[in-house]
């Protein structure tokens, strides 16, 4: 796989499992330096050891709950002190809870916004001065969701957070135009990760869409392949992106025709 990550230092949030772990793996495999942030230091240390042993590269790990504003700010400042150049930020950490609006708990709403939106914005804001001063190409990648384009029942709040991520990403791209900073949104359908242990504890939704679920390793390869390239969006699976475009044109028709599919959660 041809990439542009060799000798690049790239921060990945939520790097201890799922897509974040696989992104770190492919960055290391291609000669980059993954700088991994997550709550579970044991998982991070284990991954760091595997990456360094497998690819003879240097990896770095930092423990932080990025929903804690002060803790996240402190760890970013620590990273900036310990590393001369940071070239990329992959805002991967996220969570979801699928439930009807009348039933969802306020604490779940607050956590989704804190993790999916506020932490993503905070991390970006903290690193922008460094990226702007770094006279090389830098890249910010925000892991969003196809839910940010097509909201469905029981995902109202989750979809709202991903709508916010898309809006933020599109505006940020225009703000940093001409500063050598690429900004990419990654809009994914369901991915085969531990995300659904929280989002769908019953397992019913995951079971109903199992044949459509994306492979986290293939998804991570796609993200890493497009790092430090001018790419507005990465949309997977392709058929779902086609559906989202049709939805923008004919939302009422789609909601009638796909009512059964939209209510699978």
Automatic annotation (TrEMBL):
Keywords: Oxidoreductase. One of its GO terms (cellular component) is membrane. Pfam families: adh_short (PF00106). GO terms for molecular function: oxidoreductase activity. InterPro entries: NAD(P)-bd_dom_sf, Sc_DH/Rdtase_CS, SDR_fam. Belongs to the short-chain dehydrogenases/reductases (SDR) family. This is Oxidoreductase. It comes from Lentibacillus populi.
């Amino acid at each position: 796989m041809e990439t542009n990550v060799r000798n690049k230092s790239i921060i990945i949030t939520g790097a201890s499992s799922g897509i974040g772990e696989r992104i770190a793996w492919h960055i290391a495999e291609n000669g980059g330096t993954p700088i991994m942030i997550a709550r579970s230091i044991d998982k991070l240390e284990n991954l760091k050891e595997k990456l360094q042993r497998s690819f003879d590269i240097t990896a770095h790990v930092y423990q932080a709950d990025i929903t804690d504003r002060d803790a996240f700010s402190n760890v970013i400042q620590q990273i900036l002190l310990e590393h001369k150049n940071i070239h990329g930020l992959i805002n991967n950490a996220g969570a979801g809870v699928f439930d009807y609006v009348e039933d969802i708990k306020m604490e779940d709403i607050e956590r989704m916004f804190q993790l999916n939106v506020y932490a993503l914005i905070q991390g970006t804001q903290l690193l922008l001065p460094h990226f702007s001063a770094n006279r090389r190409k830098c890249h910010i990648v925000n892991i969003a969701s196809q839910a940010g384009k097509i909201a469905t029942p029981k995902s109202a709040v989750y979809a709202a957070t991903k709508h916010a991520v898309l809006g933020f990403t599109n505006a940020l791209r225009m703000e940093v135009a001409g500063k050598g900073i690429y900004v990419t949104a990654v809009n994914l359908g369901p991915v085969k990760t531990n995300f659904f242990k929280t989002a769908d504890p019953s397992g019913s939704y995951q079971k109903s869409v199992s044949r459509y679920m994306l492979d986290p390793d293939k998804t991570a390869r796609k993200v890493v392949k497009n790092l430090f390239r001018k790419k507005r969006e990465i949309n997977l699976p392709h058929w779902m992106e086609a559906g989202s475009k049709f939805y923008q044109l004919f939302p009422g028709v789609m909601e009638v025709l796909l009512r059964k599919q939209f209510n699978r959660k």
